[in-house]
Specification:
Blueprint (H helix, E strand, L loop, with lengths): L1 H10 L7 H12 L9 H11 L7 H12 L4 E3 L2 H7 L8 E3 L5
Helix pairs in contact: 1-2, 3-4
Amino acid sequence: MGSIIWKKARLLKTPEITEVEGREIVDLLLNVALTVHPMASLLMAAYDLAVSPARPTVYDFCYLVLADTLNCRFVTADRIFFEALKGGPLGSRLLWVADPI
């Protein structure tokens, strides 16, 4: 999340947020209770999906495989990822960020 916030505050030609807003967002994130899931057991499945033709990265698939393993949905704002996979076997696990739950 830190890299995304930094990008929106500093890297973009026209920043979407100020540096102060970015700092406030990071502060809020530091107070969120998170559950950490080891990826070792999911990595091979993510790799196998990613090496298929015209597929997203292993990194992207780790989240989708985790959602499938936890029997929940993965919310994404990555339009290319969403469009590429929404009709596939794990498409039911995907949810576009602006869609209702």
